[in-house]
Design brief:
This protein is α/β, with parallel strands linked by helices. A seven-stranded mixed sheet has the order 9-8-11-10-12-13-14, with helices on both faces. α18 runs antiparallel to α19. The two termini are 31 Å apart.
């Protein structure tokens, strides 16, 4: 990973393209660096000026006579390459290229950007941008950006691929009082990307929570490793817009068809411990909660309210999320009953009634937070004629100080009447919302993060024995030499078998006589299928025969299948007829893989056979970093799991064998990146073992 110490804490900063003219970006950059209180040395560079904003101006970097830790570039795109070359020759460490006119404008800009990246890498210079707003750190402080706003100091790092989104959020933050530790505009991500800045923020003592707005991930494997390590230290919350194109293609496999356009990102975030926000509002609601509140130890929530309706709404929201309503101890309910009005509700939500003052709120909140079965609390305040907004806010703040290890969030459900109390809560780090649902969503995100921290810190490769990669190489090489992209069923089954995947015996026969002999070797009954890479749906054209029980029937079926194919698809190339052992009926499953362009192999598991596209009962994981524990979790996320455990008197199936088959499939597709798609459908699961019946593999 890039060492960004000199990037965020430079001793020397040069601004190339600095300007005297107010309103010019080159002038704003100089003013921002001065105004933020940057403690280092600032060097404006412009051959036409001698002084800018009271600072000595230099004609070029060489004239400064000092090595730059950071160079901010704001010149036209056609001059950036020469500037980057000069930066490299003078030993500059990092560049922030504000200039636009690169890959965002088309092919010529892309060529320019590639040359810029090449120069920076050849000299070992870090590059942020081009086409970015810049960056800030409020604790250094430094403001190497042309933003109109320098944010309040705080503990939230914000990394944004969109410059417009970034400046809008900074402007909004001044009105809300939200503080940031650092802010980074990624721009085109020609070199440094979201993973580099997430990794650095994870080690920044001034950052407590990391927020990202991204439209894509630059390098998938780097991101997975960084995000997994960072999320164990601090919450990483990402709002991802747009969609990967990898899953949107018309795929030939069931797995490819099931993998939605955004599925790989969803899976990558989950496996790496990232919390995904669905809107800008949720992104910053989560940020506020994480920035000031402790991570909950569990998902049990207590609700204290002065109105029944809002309490019910909050309860519904909790039960529909990953949270649950806390069940109070007998002692807690007895004390609530003894000290609250007779009409009050005491069993969660606790309704302290509309005439509740600060003392009643204080008592109820203190009792529920003291209960060991409560992990967090949501306090609702509705305006009545006797509501005490400010006093109640102080009661909430003081009670939370007694129980600082349990998060407390509030919803002041009103406007002007409650504004003073809401302001007090926000100033003291108690997230306060207008309605309860955002508070519940924020708590739910905090609970998801608490669970995500339990992920292994490092990826642990699946340890598997009995693997034979050499025969697989030979098979794939032969297929490529024949100009094919699709393996025959017998070839795909051999590939699977080389990685220890149990496959029902299958052989290829090229004549009726050979088919009969092979069937006798395998043992009757058998299934017969046409072997042609051009025929995906064999049953539709009469290319399959099931339950063939004698050599004579095999010969007859061979001829019938061949005639059917020639009649319906006369131009199809037929390699022969595949003879496969007919297995006893088991629970039908699918194990599959489609390859995502950013994150690599995406493994699928679910109900198989004819139910695949009908029920879409499938769970996904990325093969990279996949562990047996995560595979077991995959199983539990499907309805197939209910069948596998034993349903309506059926014997439980061999879950260990299924986990092993998924693990071996993952290892296979990791070892052979040329495998583009793979379907094992159906897999028959039995009380003792599991067998693959039909294996499809396509290569790139």
């Amino acid at each position: 990973m890039a060492d960004l110490h000199a990037f965020f804490r430079p001793q020397t900063v040069a601004i190339i393209g600095a300007s005297k003219k107010p309103g010019k970006i080159g002038n704003v950059l100089v003013k921002n660096m001065i105004a933020c209180g940057y403690p280092g040395r600032i060097y404006p560079v412009n051959p036409k000026e001698e002084e800018i904003e009271g600072l000595c101006c230099y004609p070029n970097l060489s004239a400064i006579g000092e090595r730059m830790d950071l160079v901010v570039v704001a010149v036209p795109a056609n001059r950036v390459i020469a500037v980057a070359q000069e930066c490299g020759l003078t030993g500059a460490k990092n560049l922030v290229v504000i200039s636009a006119g690169f890959k965002e404008v088309g092919k010529e800009g892309l060529i320019l950007e590639m040359e810029l990246t090449r120069i920076c890498r050849s000299y070992g210079m870090g590059l942020l941008g081009p086409n970015c707003v810049g960056m800030m750190d409020t604790h250094v402080p430094i403001n190497a950006s042309f933003s109109a706003v320098f944010p309040k100091q705080g503990n939230i790092a914000f990394i944004s691929q969109s410059g417009a989104m970034l400046v809008a959020i900074l402007d909004w933050s001044l009105a809300t009082g939200l503080g940031f530790s650092r802010v980074v505009s990624l721009g085109n991500k020609a070199d440094l990307n979201e993973a580099d800045f997430i990794a650095d923020a994870a080690n920044d003592p001034n950052t407590r929570v990391i927020l990202c707005y991204i439209e894509d991930v630059a390098r998938g494997q780097q991101f997975l490793q960084v995000a997994r390590a960072a999320s164990r230290k601090k919450p990483v919350i990402i709002l991802k817009s747009g969609a990967s194109q990898a899953g949107a293609q018309a795929a030939s496999s069931h797995t490819g068809a099931l993998a939605g356009s955004d599925l790989a990102y969803e899976t990558a975030f989950r496996q790496s411990g990232v919390i995904r926000a669905r809107s800008m509002a949720e992104l910053f609601d989560l940020a506020v909660a994480f920035a000031h509140q402790p991570v909950p130890k569990g998902n049990r929530v207590a609700v204290v309210t002065n109105a029944g309706g809002p309490g019910i709404v909050t309860t519904d929201s909790i039960e529909m999320s990953e949270l649950t309503m806390a069940r109070f101890s007998k002692e807690t309910t007895q004390e609530l009953r003894a000290n609250l009005p007779r009409e009050a509700a005491i069993y969660n939500p606790v309704d302290v009634l509309g005439d509740a003052g600060e003392n009643r709120y204080r008592f109820a909140l203190e009792k529920v937070l003291a209960d060991q079965s409560v992990d967090s609390a949501v306090v609702l305040v509705c305006p009545t004629a006797v509501t005490e907004p400010e006093q109640t806010a102080r009661a909430i703040i003081e009670t939370h100080r007694i129980y600082p290890d349990k998060p407390v969030l509030a919803a002041y459900m009103g406007g002007k009447t409650l504004a003073g109390g809401a302001k007090l809560l926000a100033e003291e780090g108690i997230p306060c919302f207008t309605f309860p649902e955002p508070a519940v969503r924020a708590l739910s995100g905090m609970v998801r993060y608490a669970r995500a921290r339990e992920l292994p810190e490092k990826e642990k490769e699946l340890e598997l024995g009995d693997i034979q990669p050499e025969p697989v190489k030979e098979i794939l090489q032969k297929v490529r030499q024949e100009g094919r992209l699709t393996l025959l069923g017998s070839e795909a089954s051999r590939v699977a078998g080389c990685y220890g995947i149990a496959v029902a015996p299958i052989v290829l026969a090229t004549s009726p006589h050979e088919a009969a002999a092979r069937a006798q070797e395998i043992g009757f009954p058998v299934v017969m299928k046409v072997a042609s890479p051009q025929i995906l749906h064999k049953t539709d054209i009469g290319g399959v025969k099931i339950g063939v029980e004698t050599p004579q029937e095999v010969k007859k079926a061979f001829i019938e299948i061949t005639e059917n194919v020639q009649r319906f698809l006369p131009k199809a190339v037929i390699y022969g007829i595949e003879i496969q052992k007919m297995m006893l009926q088991g629970t039908e499953l699918i194990i599959g893989m489609t390859r995502d362009v950013q994150f690599g192999p995406l493994i699928a598991f679910g109900l198989g056979g004819i139910y695949v596209n009908l029920l879409k009962d499938v769970s996904f994981r990325l093969a990279h970093g996949l562990t047996r524990q995560e595979i077991q979790q995959m199983l539990t996320e499907t309805r197939a799991y209910t069948l596998l455990r034993g349903y309506r008197g059926e014997k439980p199936k061999d879950l260990g064998a299924i986990v092993e088959m998924i693990a071996r499939t993952a290892r296979l597709v990791l070892d052979f990146p040329e495998i583009g798609e793979m379907d094992i459908n159906p897999v028959f699961a039995y009380p003792d073992g599991a067998f693959a019946l039909d294996v499809k593999i396509t290569i790139s």
